[in-house]
Amino acid sequence: xxxxxxxxxxxxxxxxxxxxxxxHCICINDIAPQAPTHVLIIPKKPIATLADADQTDQALxxxxxxxxxxxARQLGVENAFRLIVNNGADAGQTVFHLHLHLLAGxxxxxxxx
Length: 113
Hints:
By secondary structure, the protein is an alpha+beta fold. It contains two helices and five strands.
């Protein structure tokens, strides 16, 4: 397992309330939310960055998208949410274990893609 904070959460070394969990991922609230709803969707397989994923990760990456939709429905934000993946330090990635940010509960600026 990864030695990142996410790896420790997945391994149960750091107890954290989970919003959703299945055999491939966990979803937890972000500790520094940037929106009223800010959930992290974290694969259990440790992949440092999206750019480090390879062809064998294709199904997992698709699964993360489906998990995002499930979590959005569970939280009642399925009609308006944003998904973000930061890849690398210069893009704002601070934990080098791939994860998606699901943000909702506020209007987002147009043009911020």
